[in-house]
Amino acid sequence: MTTQVMKREDLGISWAQLEYPPKSYNSGMTIPTTANTSLTGPLTTPWAPDGKSLAAHIASVMPTPPESPPPGRLVGTNTDGCNNGLIDDTTTKLGLQNLLRVSTSNADRYYLTRKCCYVFHCMNLRTRFNYPVIPNSMIIRDERVTTAMEQVIAEELEEKGLDANDKKSYSALLSKHTTRAHRLLNEMKSALSSILIRITGYVLFKVFSNLLMSVTIHGGQQEVIERAAQRDTPIIFVPLHRSHVDYLFVTWVLFNRQIPAPIVAAGDNLRIPVFGWLLRGLGGFFIKRRLESCKARKDILYRSVLQTYVTHALQAGYNLEFFIEGGRTRTGKPCLPKGGLLSVIVDAYSNGTLDDALIVPIAINYDRLLDGNFIREQMGQSKVPESFWGAVRAIIKVLSTNYGHARIDFGQPFSLREFVQNTKGCAPRLTLNQSQNQPQSEPILGCTPPLSPTPLSVSPTSASDSQPLAPLPQIASTPLVIEKGHQRSLSSPSSKDHLTLKRTLSNPSSTINAVNRTTSNLHGARSNSSLFGNEVTEEYRYLVKSLAAHIVYDAERCQAIMSTNAIAWLLSFVYRDGTRLSTLTKALDALRDSLRTRKRDTGFSGSSKDVVMHAVKLLGAGLVRIEQTQGSDKASSEEADFLIEPITLLPNVIELNYYASALLPVFAVDAIVATSLLPLIDCDLWSYKDCSPNCLIDREKLIKRALGLSGMLQHEFLLAPPCASLDAKLHQSVDSLVDMGLLQDAGKVDNRWSEDSDEDDLTFSQCYKVVPSTSSLEVIGAWTTMLAPMLDAYYCTACSLRMLVTRQVPDKEFIQKTQNHIAALVEKGTLRYGESMCVDPIRNAVKFFETEAVVESYTHDSVRLLYLTQEYDSEERLSRFISEIDSYRS
Ligand SMILES: O=P(O)(O)OC[C@H](O)CO
After folding, report:
1. Tens of pLDDT along 430-446?
2. 561 and 666 in contact (C-beta within 8 Å)?
């Protein structure tokens, strides 16, 4: 099958003509107006560092006048409709603030005060907080560490064939492992310094004001965090990870609000000379990168030291920050969560050492990434390790560049205790036996009987999607609604998850849920013990997985879409062959409306024409080509039109795709439904534009197919949080196609005799007639094109499985050969999208094949070998599987 190439200009279709989005989306909903208070409102006596008037300065630093700033509301999934006592009218009314604008208590008439406003600002901030020192001895003597040490010693004595009662050998080993525990702790622990935070805070003002046009954050969100910090409960900040700069941003924001800095989990790859020391002084503590790996799991001493350190720090009153995705996203869309540090926190809560914590999902987004790009790694080359000189070179390189705007969004804080209490009743009725102190007979709190897939109108998520945000009721009064599918998946061993998913692809009647999707990422899925050595129950696993999924889902939802994301998306998926500035401007207007109705913030404001020009400039000539069209009047730039064209050649297109991908999660469900619809229609919709081909669509069949495709893309997207029904989301998306006019009600048909029906099927199912209009085709085209590169990658990876027939191949070789194959097809023009060769979708396809029990793997001499399972180890079976994957490509 070749990729469908749609030339919309030839068809006379224009994205901008479109009535978009369909009216049904959150109809009647209004965006909370924080409006013009944003950059000018909340600051009492602000001035620009160079003494210009504020308005003039804003005009010079913003791409457009701030006529309609994005709302910057607090987003929460399980907490939508919950207040936590942190939100009130004040927080919802505050607007966006540019952190680079500072104010002091003096008027701006003094030259020195104006010139040195950052110095005065930083001097006036309170940074001297009580950062208690946690003595090493307290951690090393902790029961958890001593128990781990005894276990390690016993194992070593046994390994060496020594007598377990031999005191001399025992004390020699005790001293060896105690020294190691001290070393591990010293390498790990942070050394928060108030002075360093103040100095770095000032330096960051200077650096960021040179590199960035603004660093924007919503005043209400800051206010909520400030209120949360006044409580006795530790705060756990969990940002999505895009850049190394993320490490600095949260601490810097808190410094500006005079909130104590958190300790921040950093990968030990960042423990490099000077920068490692700096990071440690700013609160960084270093952990091994792959906590989930077998090697790290086996190092029980390391695990016990880490867990004890984090637990003691939380007990001592430190706030914590960690990146739940592990590394930075290479694709531009969030990675599925890792459970490592989250399970430490859940452990600490469940064994009673931590009474509660407030969890704050965070999203940070940049017009342009300061770290460069991930082209190299996506092309299959290995990552260049961090080093001192590498960091220095990178800093020198970025200093002379403009990176546009940056935006930080804090999600709504939610209580760990309330989350656990609400979730406990929904998982299998097993006890959390993490602690001996915990009463085993503890009643299951918040026990909500598992419900059948929740009608959209009553699920917490849907409620939040269709209602204004404030005021929000208390969390405790809103029990989480967990659907049946979750309980099923938990009550079965992980191997059965394979069956669930396998069924989904072939007969996807079971609901795929977010918990299943994170299975392979958390705890290594098949282990029966937690990352930190405790025997875990299914309930515990469920808890960590659903908490992780909630955090990532919430963080993604609060992420603001930057101008470069929007323009890269339009150029990648709507105007891949290029278009005029005027058309792109109208398309951006439509996209902005669509984002607004989906309650998504944008990190830009003002006229779309200016936003397009700003984004095109930032994306640069390597990603977007711009030229003035012939006949434009050069003299009057107002009238001048330009031709704007994306560079779709490899490798540049990979970077463009990175920026476009921030919008993928926003439209993922719709894209899945649209992509599922096309193969169910016998005819080519585009040739029936504005006509009515004689074909009917069965709603249930469409949903089943969409569920199958959702299952296939389970490693790409978190489509719904664990408390919501994916099924309902898909139904909502089908409704939107009806509202759009693409589907017209054709009544119910008797499906008793249809070949797919089984005895339990509904007798009648809803059918729709397909009526493609110009505008609906435009939307369908964009959504299907959005998934096309990914589906091509999955299909080509499935084809590559042929190289595994009767043999084993190292996974690196398998991926490399698949990439080469895709690159060759792109070169020949058989495949349209160069980004299909990125390593991420290929890896995810392999993960999916493993989930489907098509492929298995084992590690030998540190090499991971892939092979086909017995069931698929033949050309014929494999071909059938490949055609099944192919059938999802439109
Ligand atoms: O994206 P990576 O893999 O370079 O990792 C970034 C992490 O912040 C390292 O701690």
Report:
1. 333 333 333 333 322 22
2. yes
Mean pLDDT of the chain: 77
Helix axes 388-399, 194-211, angle to 10 degrees: 40
Whether 468 is in the pocket of ligand 1, judged by its Cβ within 6 Å, is no
Q: What is the pLDDT of residues 653-701, one digit of tens each?
A: 999 999 999 999 999 999 999 999 988 887 777 777 777 777 788 999 9
Task: Find the largest Cα–Cα distance for the chain.
Answer: 94
Q: Is the CB of 643 under 6 A from ligand 1?
A: no
- pLDDT at residue 71, as a whole number: 40
According to DSSP, residue 457 is labeled G
Closest residue CA from atom 8 of ligand 1: 327
Q: What is the Å distance from ligand 1's center to 330 Cα?
A: 10
Distance CA 229, CA 227 (A): 5
Given CA atoms 396, 400, 402, 407 in this order, what sign does their dihedral have?
A: positive
Helix/strand/coil percent split, the chain, to 5: 50, 10, 40
- Counting from 1 in the atom list of ligand 1, the atom nearest the Cα of 323 is 8
Average pLDDT over residues 722-738: 92
Strand arrangement, sheet containing 624-628: 579-580, 642-646, 624-628
Helix (H) or strand (E) holding 267: strand 263-267
Give the three-state DSSP class for 320: strand
List, for residues 6-20, the tens digit of each pLDDT value. 333 333 333 333 322
The dihedral of CA 801, 807, 812, 816: what is its sign?
A: negative
The CA–CA distances, whole Å, from 585 to 23, 75, 395 equal: 21, 28, 35
Ligand 1 centroid–CA 130 distance in Å is 29
Q: Which two tokens stand for residue 536?
A: 């875990």
Please tell me the distance from the alpha carbon of residue 774 to that of residue 778, in angstroms, as a whole number.
6
Question: What is the rounded distance in angstroms from the CA atom of residue 581 to the CA atom of residue 615?
Answer: 12
Long-range contact set of residues 702-705: C-beta below 8 Å, sequence gap at least 24: 702/673, 702/676, 702/677, 702/734, 703/727, 703/730, 703/731, 703/734, 704/507, 704/508, 704/509, 704/756, 705/508, 705/676, 705/679, 705/680
- Residue 266 in contact with ligand 1 by CB distance below 6 A: yes
What is d(CA 644, CA 654) in angstroms, rounded to the nearest whole number?
A: 18
Cα–Cα distance for residue pair 300/291, rounded to 1 Å = 11
Other C-beta atoms closer than 10 Å to the C-beta of 535 total: 10
Higher pLDDT, 253 or 13: 253
What is the spatial distance between Cα 22 and Cα 16, in angstroms, rounded to a whole number?
Answer: 14
Angle in degrees, 0-180, between the axes of helices 811-828 and 839-851, rounded to the nearest 10: 120
Q: What is the DSSP-derived secondary structure letter of residue 409?
A: E
In this structure, which residue's CA is closest to atom 2 in ligand 1? 327
Question: Is pLDDT at 624 greater than 90 in this prediction?
Answer: yes
pLDDT in tens, 777-797: 888 899 999 999 999 999 999
> Which amino acid makes up residue 620?
G
Q: Which residue in the block uniquely carries the two structure tokens 């936590």? A: 84
Q: How many residues does the chain have?
A: 890
Contact 368, 624 (CB under 8 A): no
What is the C-alpha separation between 609 and 616, in angstroms, rounded? 11
- End-to-end Cα spacing for the chain: 10
**Residue 81: its pLDDT value, please?**
44
State how far Cα 674 lies from the chain centre: 23
Q: What whole-number distance in Å separates Cα of residue 167 and Cα of residue 169? A: 6
